[in-house]
From TrEMBL:
<dbReference type="GO" id="GO:0006955">
    <property type="term" value="P:immune response"/>
</dbReference>
<dbReference type="InterPro" id="IPR037055">
    <property type="entry name" value="MHC_I-like_Ag-recog_sf"/>
</dbReference>
<dbReference type="InterPro" id="IPR011162">
    <property type="entry name" value="MHC_I/II-like_Ag-recog"/>
</dbReference>
<dbReference type="InterPro" id="IPR036179">
    <property type="entry name" value="Ig-like_dom_sf"/>
</dbReference>
<dbReference type="GO" id="GO:0009897">
    <property type="term" value="C:external side of plasma membrane"/>
</dbReference>
<keyword id="KW-0472">Membrane</keyword>
<feature type="domain" description="Immunoglobulin C1-set">
    <location>
        <begin position="212"/>
        <end position="282"/>
    </location>
</feature>
<dbReference type="GO" id="GO:0005615">
    <property type="term" value="C:extracellular space"/>
</dbReference>
<dbReference type="Pfam" id="PF00129">
    <property type="entry name" value="MHC_I"/>
</dbReference>
<protein>
    <recommendedName>
        <fullName>Immunoglobulin C1-set domain-containing protein</fullName>
    </recommendedName>
</protein>
<dbReference type="Pfam" id="PF07654">
    <property type="entry name" value="C1-set"/>
</dbReference>
<dbReference type="InterPro" id="IPR003597">
    <property type="entry name" value="Ig_C1-set"/>
</dbReference>
<dbReference type="InterPro" id="IPR011161">
    <property type="entry name" value="MHC_I-like_Ag-recog"/>
</dbReference>
<dbReference type="InterPro" id="IPR013783">
    <property type="entry name" value="Ig-like_fold"/>
</dbReference>
<dbReference type="InterPro" id="IPR050208">
    <property type="entry name" value="MHC_class-I_related"/>
</dbReference>
<feature type="transmembrane region" description="Helical">
    <location>
        <begin position="296"/>
        <end position="316"/>
    </location>
</feature>
<keyword id="KW-1133">Transmembrane helix</keyword>
């Protein structure tokens, strides 16, 4: 087989599939600091991230979790871990040899706990992963092997902690249950917000061959973005010459289109099939032709959507970096101001 032809077919196949798998994650991040005299800032902070979007944060003033009111739906399926603020502070004090009244130097303890789920367009789960890991003073400290439910020490200082936690069956059973629930919550939540695609098929004249048409299938308005698309003639899959891949709409849904070349006189038996969130959607070409004005209107609409999306993204970033985000930007800035140079915020 000609190598150039092979890569053309390969890239077209990848583009037609859209995205091979889609990953979602739910993550809680905790940071605790000792507080020597003369140092201001929070001693404890915690945030919850869903797919890198902050949906909850812990308020030291109120000593409770503040959930994003715009994400109320997810809280039907998830909750914060039970470990308390005092538990984290006591653990750090133990590691840093602090007393109730005195602590020499500045020390940090961080924890990342949560789960990830990879899914195929047919809604089958391809891979799941749960994790619980700690860092101390900017270095890896200890983490949980989810498959063996054993703690792995990453520092000589963690050996005593490993022995203690490995023998705590109540702690580990509770943590295993929580991490299992975490993965179920992601699947349930994604199913609750799934939006099916709207399908459209249309054809336009091929620019360089009067005997051919370019037949296009457009799927739009779907979420999540994982999708597979194929165009068939009498149930035989046709090879696309063009695919947009999955692209965002301005309303947080997605779109995708693919095109094949067909003979102008063959106008029956063409269908578009889309696999999304475990369901197959099909539409049949009604033999309509797209006018050039309609084509350019669609191009202009797509360009406008891209511009609007970029503007919204810039506004969002400006709001986040200007400190208007409620969730974590102000806490992160405070932590960066008091953590010694050379230590990392994991």
């Amino acid at each position: 087989m000609d190598l150039k032809f092979f890569f053309i077919v390969l890239f077209a196949y990848i583009g037609l599939r859209g995205v091979y798998s889609e990953r979602h994650h739910l993550l809680f991040v905790y940071t605790v600091l000792t507080k020597p005299d003369g140092v201001s800032g929070p001693v404890f902070s915690a945030v919850c991230l869903y797919d890198d979007r902050c949906i909850s944060h812990y308020s030291n003033e109120e000593q409770t979790w503040n959930r994003d009111r715009f994400d109320a739906e997810i809280w039907r399926y998830t909750r914060e871990p039970d470990d308390s603020r005092d538990w984290f502070i006591n653990l750090l004090n133990t590691l840093a040899n602090c007393t109730s009244s005195r602590c020499d130097g500045l020390h940090t303890l961080q924890r990342r706990v949560g789960c990830e789920v990879d899914k195929h367009p047919d809604d089958a789960v391809m891979n799941v992963n749960a994790f619980d890991e700690y860092g101390y003073d900017g270095e890896d400290f200890i983490f949980l092997n989810y498959y063996t439910m054993q703690w792995i020490d990453k520092s000589p200082k963690a050996k005593e902690t490993k022995t203690k936690w490995d023998s705590d069956r109540v702690l580990n059973d509770h943590l295993q249950l929580y991490l299992n629930d975490c993965m179920d919550w992601i699947s349930t939540y994604n199913a609750s917000i799934s939006t099916p695609p709207a399908l459209h098929m249309f054809a336009s004249a091929a620019p360089h061959d009067q005997s051919e048409l370019n037949l296009t299938c457009l799927a739009t308005g779907f979420s999540p973005k994982l999708i597979e698309m194929k165009i068939t003639l009498n149930n035989i899959t046709l090879q696309p010459f063009s695919s947009s891949g999955v692209r965002p709409n301005v309303n947080q849904t997605f779109q995708m289109r693919a095109s094949v070349k067909i003979h102008r006189d063959e106008k029956q038996g063409y269908e578009c099939h889309v696999l999304h969130s475990g369901q197959t959607f099909t539409t049949t070409w009604d033999r309509s032709l797209e006018s050039r004005s309609h084509h350019w209107a669609a191009v202009a609409a797509g360009a406008l959507a891209t511009v609007v999306l970029c503007i919204m993204s810039l506004i969002y970033k400006k709001r986040s970096f200007s400190g208007q985000s409620d969730c974590s930007s102000s806490t992160t800035e405070q932590l960066e101001n008091i953590i010694p140079q050379g230590q990392q915020i994991l």
